[in-house]
Every structure is written in C-alpha cells, then in structure tokens.
Automatic annotation (TrEMBL):
It is found in: Cell membrane. The lineage of its organism: Bacteria, Bacillati, Actinomycetota, Actinomycetes, Mycobacteriales. It comes from the Bacteria. It is a multi-pass membrane protein. GO terms for cellular component: plasma membrane. The chain crosses the membrane at residues 6-25, 32-50, 62-83. Belongs to the UPF0410 family. This is GlsB/YeaQ/YmgE family stress response membrane protein. It comes from Nocardia yunnanensis.
Length: 89
C-alpha cells in the first residue's frame, strides 16, 4: 500500500475503517477521523500479519490493499473491544 501515497492511505483506510466499524457495531462511537485512523492502523496490522504468514504484500493491488486494511481494522476493533470490556449488542 506504500505506492498509493498519503491520499490513498486516507481514502482506503477511511473506507476500510468505516466498513469494519459497521461490521463490529462501533460506528455510532466513531467519526470520520477515527475511521481513517482505524483503517490505516488496520492496514499496518494486516500487512504485518500477512508478512508473518509468508504472503507477499508488495504490489498486491488496490483490492488486496483494501482487504488487508479491512481485515486488520476488524482485528483492531475486536482487540480494543476486549481491552475496554465493550460487548457488541
């Protein structure tokens, strides 16, 4: 995802963070800024985990980058929910 630039990180990260927050039931507590942060950090988490599994994440393309951000964002929101004791309703 490094080839996308900062605007790509913001757009893909924001979209992935928003969809992850909908999926995890935290959308009411998050605004656009937090969705972007969750998506970008999720991309870093997802990329790190995929590299640990031996997946080549460089040059994966736009859809692969989005899915990596989405998966990482869901993991991040799940871990934050565990840490804060929040349960999905």
């Amino acid at each position: 995802m490094l080839g996308l630039g900062i605007i790509g990180w913001i757009v893909i990260g924001g979209l992935a963070g928003w969809i992850a927050s909908k999926f995890m039931g935290t959308d009411g507590q998050q605004g656009i800024f937090l969705n972007i942060v969750v998506g970008v950090v999720g991309g870093l988490i997802g990329g790190f985990l995929l590299k640990l599994l031996g997946v080549d994440v460089n040059g994966g393309g736009l859809i692969f980058s989005f899915l990596t951000c989405l998966g990482g964002a869901v993991i991040l929101l799940f871990l934050v929910g565990l840490a804060t004791g929040r349960r999905r309703v």
